[in-house]
Amino acid sequence: MDRIKEKMNQLRLEAEESASKVEELQGKVKTLEQENLQKEQEIISLTHKNNVLETEVDKLEAQVKDLKAAASEGQQHGTQNETLTRRLQLLEEEAEEADRTLREANEKLRQTDVKAGHFERKVQALEQERDQWESKYEEMAKKYAAVQKELEDFQNEINTI
Questions:
Q1: 50 and 109 in contact (C-beta within 8 Å)?
Q2: How many CB atoms lie within 10 A of CB 96?
Q3: What is the mean pLDDT of residues 97-125?
Q4: Quick one: pLDDT band at residue 133, thresholds 50, 70, 90?
């Protein structure tokens, strides 16, 4: 009789531990899913920024090309040539800055993509672990129900004696 009570208490404790572990893992999964969503949004944002910067680089390169052509044609006009040269220099600096920003955005995009992959793997692992815990919990619940039934049957037999 005492062994049955001990076993029931042990099964209850195990069931409670399993339930709390499932809740904890579900919380972790939810947190990781939120982090994953944030990373995906950051990827989308960086991709858009990357596209905008690439367009700006193309536009600036076209302007640089146009200004170089205009500068070579305007050598007869010294003052105009100096102005165009200064403007060309500024545009080249802007193009270099845009190129540097583009490289930084690409690097951030790559890092974010790597992190997103990592979090996706982590979410999958936690979901598997959660499924295992849920399976154990269901198994323990069945065992608990069986022991509960066995106890009731045993009590009924004792009462009939």
A1: yes
A2: 12
A3: 91
A4: very high
pLDDT of residue 80 exceeding 70: no
Structure tokens that stand for 42 in this block: 């950051």
Per-residue b or e along 54-92, where b marks 16 or more CB atoms closer than 10 Å to that residue's CB: eebbeebeebbeebeeebeebeeeeeebeebeeebeebb
Length of the chain in residues, anyone? Answer: 161
Tokens of 58: 């193309």
Q: Residues 68, 70, 73, 79: is their CA dihedral positive or negative?
A: negative
DSSP character string of 27-43: HHHHHHHHHHHHHHHHH
Determine the residue type at 161. Answer: I
Q: pLDDT tens, 65-74?
A: 988 887 666 5
